[in-house]
Each structure stands twice: as structure tokens, then as C-alpha cells.
């Protein structure tokens, strides 16, 4: 037997991690030890949670808990197959029908995640002869779907409708389908996509219009119907993507549109074809969540009340919360922009020591020089909790020289 020491072929990954540590942007996962709530326990420490996507507090809503338990008792813990073989349960169809009615469209297909919904849809409906006109700050799942499609990608400046139209005009005589795609709400800055103008541009050049509404589902529009409802552009967006993992409180993503679009995705969207379907408890939970959106609009009102208060106070403290060389937040996502990655990560660590969970975000998730703490309001934060969090943010911000 040879006694030669084997060279580790993955040593380059260790080198890259060491580089991150040297830059001060390496992180370790914080572990949640109880429920995802406004105040919860990470790594044994009770903190005010400003990092969650649990906008409406539905992760612990009694109606959702009950629905999950009942479905588990009735149907078991798993579906046992992919949707196209033996894994389409009646409860999956009920969820898709419920979402389609809620979003005022013909049909809906549910994916295992919002990422899978975006990547699977873009890569399924386009090919290498086609074109994608994409906002420069679109979500990673859109970018990956665009790459997988092998279509030619034209990027337009963030929220710049005129530039999007220029890109469309530059390819108007080229064969192939054209797809205009934008986030409804941009996840790092919290600003809203200019859907009416993009719809105009898409219609002018006969392009497909697609919107990723992950961070506006449950937040914007009537009872949380999203940006299409917020702007009243019903019938003008051909492909609507949403998530079941944020305001809805559970897990998954969905695509809404025409019956033909959804039937095509049943046949051709690879994440749908090759991933086991949701456990029945998840589908039941999501059905219950849409009932709550209809029945408890006061949750969304409270979310926005907290958002307005928190933004105003952060600005009064002197934090850069967007609008200075970065987009201005218009939603419960409010970034505190500090610039340098090392400082953002230090800010996050010291906030945690004070009693706040607020994650540092640096390159490559955001551009170099635009590292930040991303804060997200929820409907379940109390005024006292937010006041306490603001005091801690001010204290740590002053200590680190982020505010005066």
C-alpha cells in the first residue's frame, strides 16, 4: 500500500475562506433556538430580531399551526414523489387554485422555493435565440435562470425605464423572443420596481413581461396581493413569481399566469419535474396563510405603521438608509449602509452583543463599497421593542463612528 500523503484538491477553498477572514467579511451561521419571532434566541442570547423575512408574523400563527398538524395527521409527512409521477396530492392543487384566485390570474404552479420558481421558469420559457432585458439589481435566482436559458442578456440600469426601452429598441429587428424582467421589490434596498413604465416598454416592443414579487407578496397591494395589484397592472404582466417563504410564513415559490404558461411549466420546468413536491403540512399551511391575508388586513397595516416609525427614527439618528448614491427604500426592508464590508460585519457583531439580530451584508451580495446592515420590520414588533432597538443602534453606531 502506498504511504504517499494525498494532496487536498479542495485546498483552494480553504485559501478563499482565509481571504474572507483577512477582509473581515467571513461569517458563521447564527442558530435560532426557538420560534422565528420579533424577539427570539440566537446562539443562546435573547435578541430583538431585525433580520427575518417573517413580515406578518405568520410563522407562528395559530391557524397555520393547526392546518399543518391536521394535514400531517390526515396525509402523513411527505408526498413521496415528484409532481409528475405520483406526488401531486389534492392539497397541492387546492393551493395552486387558491393562489390563482388571490392573484386574479388563470392558473398557478407551486415550486419548492422562490429561487427554483425564478430559475426554473426563465430557463424553461427561453432559449439561446432569445433575449432577456434585466434590471441590474435583479435577484440572483433571475440571473441564474437567465444564464441557464442561454438567452442573450441585456442589462438595464436600475429602475431606468428609458434604458430598458433602449435595450429593447436595439434588438427589435432581431429574431427570437424578448423578456423584460424586474423584481417587484428589490431585496437589498427595499425599493419598488417601476412596473407601469416597464409594462409600457414591453408592450411597445411585443416583449414578455415578468415580475418577481417575492418581497411584496403579503406586503403591497390589497391584502398583500403584490406590486401588480399595487400599480393596478393586472393583465399586463405575463409571468408573476411569488414566494411562500417570507410573508406567507412557510416554504416555496409560485408562478402565476395563463393556463398555457402553467401547463408548459408542468411539462418543462426542471425544478418542478425533478424535485419532490411539498409535504402536505406545508401546502396546508400556505392555504391557511392566504385565508389570514384576507381575514386579518390589520397585520399589514401594523407592518406599515412599524415601518414608517422605524425609517423616520433611523433617519433622525443620522444613518444612511438609502437615497445617497443608493436607491431609497420604500418598503419594510430598510438598509443601513456603512460602505466597507469589514465595518458592516463588525457593526453586526456588536449589535448582536447589545441585543439585536441584524445581519451584515457585503460583496458579492451587494456592490463593493455598499456593505450594509439590512433591517426588516414585521407586524409583530412592538413600539417598545423598536424604541429599544433604535437606542442600541444609535449607541453602537456612535461607538463605531457610523453616526455622529
Task: Outline the fold blueprint.
Layout: H1 11-23, E1 39-42, E2 45-49, H2 62-75, H3 90-103, E3 107-111, H4 114-125, E4 131-135, H5 140-149, E5 152-156, H6 161-170, E6 178-183, H7 195-204, E7 208-212, H8 227-230, E8 239-243, E9 253-257, H9 259-268, H10 270-274, H11 280-295, H12 298-317, E10 333-339, H13 341-354, E11 356-357, E12 360-361, E13 371-376, H14 383-399
Parallel strand pairs: 2-11, 4-5, 4-6, 6-7, 7-8
Antiparallel strand pairs: 1-2, 3-9, 8-9, 10-13, 12-13
Helix pairs in contact: 2-11, 3-11, 4-5, 6-7, 12-14, 13-14
Describe the overall structure.
42% of the residues lie in helices and 15% in strands. With 404 residues, it is α/β, with parallel strands linked by helices. It has 2 domains: 20-49 and 297-399, Aspartate Aminotransferase, domain 1 (Alpha-Beta Complex), CATH 3.90.1150.10; 61-295, Aspartate Aminotransferase, domain 2 (3-Layer(aba) Sandwich). Helix 2 (62-75) runs antiparallel to helix 11 and helix 3 (90-103) packs parallel to helix 11. The termini are far apart. Catalyzes the decarboxylative condensation of pimeloyl-[acyl-carrier protein] and L-alanine to produce 8-amino-7-oxononanoate (AON), [acyl-carrier protein], and carbon dioxide. Its cofactor is pyridoxal 5'-phosphate. InterPro entries: Aminotrans_II_pyridoxalP_BS, Aminotransferase_I/II_large, AON_synthase_class-II, AONS_Archaea/Firmicutes, AONS_Archaea/Proteobacteria, PyrdxlP-dep_Trfase, PyrdxlP-dep_Trfase_major, PyrdxlP-dep_Trfase_small. Homodimer.
Amino acid at each position: 500500500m502506498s504511504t504517499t500523503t494525498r494532496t487536498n484538491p479542495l485546498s483552494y477553498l480553504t485559501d478563499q475562506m482565509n481571504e474572507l477572514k483577512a477582509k473581515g467579511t467571513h461569517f458563521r451561521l447564527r442558530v435560532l433556538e426557538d420560534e422565528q419571532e420579533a424577539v427570539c434566541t440566537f446562539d443562546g442570547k435573547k435578541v430583538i430580531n431585525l433580520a427575518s423575512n417573517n413580515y406578518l408574523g405568520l410563522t407562528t400563527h395559530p391557524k397555520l399551526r393547526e392546518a399543518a398538524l391536521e394535514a400531517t395527521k390526515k396525509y402523513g409527512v411527505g408526498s413521496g414523489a415528484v409532481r409528475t409521477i405520483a406526488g401531486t396530492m389534492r392539497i397541492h392543487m387546492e393551493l395552486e387554485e387558491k393562489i390563482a384566485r388571490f392573484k386574479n390570474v388563470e392558473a398557478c404552479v407551486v415550486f419548492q422555493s422562490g429561487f427554483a420558481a425564478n430559475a426554473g421558469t426563465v430557463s424553461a420559457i427561453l432559449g439561446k435565440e432569445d433575449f432577456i432585458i434585466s434590471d441590474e439589481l435583479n435577484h440572483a435566482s433571475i440571473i441564474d435562470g437567465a444564464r441557464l436559458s442561454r438567452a442573450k442578456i441585456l442589462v438595464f440600469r436600475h429602475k431606468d425605464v428609458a434604458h430598458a426601452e433602449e435595450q429593447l429598441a436595439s434588438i427589435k429587428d432581431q429574431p427570437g423572443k424578448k423578456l423584460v424582467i424586474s423584481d417587484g421589490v428589490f431585496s437589498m434596498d427595499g425599493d419598488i420596481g417601476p412596473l407601469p413604465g416597464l409594462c409600457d416598454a414591453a408592450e411597445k416592443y411585443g416583449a414578455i413581461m415578468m415580475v418577481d414579487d417575492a418581497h411584496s407578496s403579503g406586503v403591497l397591494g390589497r391584502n398583500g396581493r403584490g406590486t401588480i395589484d399595487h400599480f393596478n397592472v393586472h393583465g399586463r404582466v405575463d409571468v408573476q413569481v411569488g414566494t411562500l417563504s417570507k410573508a406567507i410564513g412557510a416554504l416555496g415559490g409560485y408562478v402565476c399566469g395563463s393556463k398555457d404558461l402553467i401547463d408548459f411549466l408542468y411539462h418543462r420546468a426542471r425544478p418542478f419535474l425533478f424535485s419532490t413536491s411539498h409535504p402536505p403540512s406545508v401546502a396546508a399551511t400556505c392555504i391557511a396563510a392566504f385565508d389570514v391575508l384576507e381575514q386579518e388586513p390589520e397585520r399589514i397595516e401594523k407592518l406599515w405603521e412599524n415601518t414608517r416609525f422605524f425609517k423616520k427614527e433611523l433617519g433622525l439618528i443620522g444613518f444612511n438608509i438609502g437615497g445617497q448614491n443608493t436607491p431609497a427604500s420604500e418598503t419594510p426592508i430598510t438598509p443601513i449602509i456603512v460602505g466597507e464590508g469589514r465595518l458592516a460585519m463588525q457593526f453586526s457583531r456588536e449589535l448582536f452583543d447589545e441585543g439585536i439580530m441584524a445581519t451584515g451584508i457585503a460583496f458579492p451580495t451587494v456592490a463593493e463599497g455598499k456593505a450594509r446592515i439590512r433591517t426588516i420590520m414585521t407586524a409583530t414588533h412592538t413600539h417598545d421593542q423598536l424604541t429599544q432597538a433604535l437606542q442600541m443602534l444609535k449607541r453602537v453606531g456612535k461607538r463605531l463612528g457610523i453616526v455622529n
